[in-house]
Amino acid sequence: MKHLIPFFIVLLYVGISCSDSERKSSLRFSLSFTQEMSDQAQDGRLLLLLANNDKSEPRFQINDGLTTQLVFGVDVEGMKPGTEITLTEENTFGFPVRSLANIPKGEYFAQALINRYETFKLKTGKTVNLPPDQGEGQQWNRKPGNFYSTPQKISVDPSKKETIKILMDKKIEALPEPVDSKYIKHIKIQSKLLTEFWGRPMFVGAHVLIPEGFDDHPEAHYPLMIYHGHFPSDFGGFSTEPPPPNMDTTDYEGRFGIYGYKKFQKQEAYNFYKQWTSKNFPRFLVIEIQHANPYYDDSYAVNSANLGPYGDAIMKELVPEIEKQFRGIGEGWARFTYGGSTGGWEALAVQMFYPDDFNGCFAACPDPIDFRAFCLVDIYKDKNAYWYDSDFKKLPRPAHRNYLGQIQNTMEETNHYELALGTKSRSGQQWDIWEAVYSPQGDDGYPKRIFNKETGEIDKSVAEYWKQNYDLRYILERDWKTLGPKLEGKIHIYCGDMDNYYLNNAVYLMEDFLKKTQTPFYKGEVDYGDRAEHCWNGDQENPNYVSRLRYNTMYLPKILKRIQESAPQGADVKSWRY
Question: Rounded CA gap, 301 and 395, in Å?
């Protein structure tokens, strides 16, 4: 018996090894597309999407929160029509379930989609494959031209050896161009600067809200307000028609805990129109910029090693063209910028990087403006973005909370969600665009990682590059002697103290610096909303769900006061006040 024990151990080991091998190779998905989709080979990110319900197509149920369904991704190059690409445990990266082998046994609705890439030959000499925006604002699940399949109901049992075939035989249709109206115009120009960088024609555009009486007052020239934010398909929050009296109000907005928010939004849009056209209302141009690019739904409005000179394209090509066509005053004292979240960071950044071209910024809930508090990560001191430093504990860093502090996802989870959607910063999501904007270009032509996407280990050399070029608090402090005199009275920052993404932490650090400024003192404003979540923008009287709809009017009193105090002698402060 003593001699048989090693034999049994060997048999047990072999049995476990065989079992593991079978488990790893048991479940496969075979994905292909028809020749009707294209007769050309395709590069891109091939996605398998699984949902345990049919509330909507699986492609619309993927996110990094608690409601997410399953996504598995693999890069493909030269995928030919009719050729089957087999997804296995070894070649896919999944979220929130990492491996195909760990999909819970059960019934699913399955769907396949390929986010199609195109080749860009950059001015830097690098060649990269990226998903160009197709007018949808860099949304992989809605991008015109992407192939996808009709959802099909399947049974999944990872313990069984099985190959499930899915055929992509549909293509997302192109979107119509927005149509001009009396008050809303659209402009789109080919940027020479961006075309040179990307090696192909590249465009920037804007939706322009023109003042009441524009045609009746040809002598008038107008101040310009730039509302920065995520990709706008058209000018939002403005409607010449009130909502129908019998409009359904059973819709529920979980974020704010209210019913009938769609009707409320339409009413606010109509109220804005009434205010915009009212007597004695100051006449401005308001623009929302379209600058979606191959990495994200907007460029962050600055020059970047990976995205190219978007800052200069906007400020030196697009804005002058808008002011020329729509009779803008065209001087820095008559330009203002504002926005929330991404738009909040952009508003402050462009005010800093083009200090003479703007007379004030209003930055609400801005993306991290001090990288010592990049959400909950200090990119300079922390070793790992996903885990707190500890000798014995492994405590994950949160990434999202509600106003009570309840956590929805962690740093690791939100980044692994992105990694499932795309490698090399190509997910089109938040952390990848920060990388694309702030990082130097890598040897392969793609952005250098600020941290290892799988493990969270931070690259200090990349962090130093971020610091010198895009850490707004650091740059202000470093350059205050020259920047300060140009920014006096122009900086206004607002944030809820329970921001969902912990963005208030960076605002605290920025405020600490601004309060200490001298020669000159900054003479601006920093304010916080008590228990307010993301997108709080300085309104201490109304709830967030109201004030977030009023960006285009809420800062007007401060803007008018600023113009009165700072407009140069002889400036046109009357032609637009009819």
Answer: 36
Regarding whether 350 and 263 lie in a shared domain, the answer is: yes
Determine the residue type at 529: G
Q: Are residues 514 and 377 in the same domain?
A: no
* Edge-to-edge strand ranges of the sheet holding 203-209: 184-190, 203-209, 285-290, 224-228, 335-340, 361-364, 491-496, 525-529
Neighbours of 249 (CB within 10 A): 14
Distant-in-sequence, close-in-space partners of 293: CB < 8 Å, separation ≥ 6: 133, 138, 202, 299, 307, 310
Pairing mode of beta strands 252-253, 42-51: unpaired
Burial degree of 257 (CB within 10 A; 0-12, 13-18, 19+): exposed
Is the same domain home to 166 and 304? Answer: no
Domain range for 410 is 373-468
Residue burial 123-145, b: 16+ Cβ < 10 Å; e: rest:
eeeeebbbbbbbbbbbbbbebeb
In a domain, 2, yes or no: no
Residue 257 shares a structural domain with residue 278? yes
Q: Mean per-residue pLDDT for 70-90?
A: 96
159 by DSSP, 3-state: which? coil
**pLDDT tens, residue by residue, 313-333:** 999 999 999 999 999 999 999
Evaluate if residue 17 carries a pLDDT over 90.
no
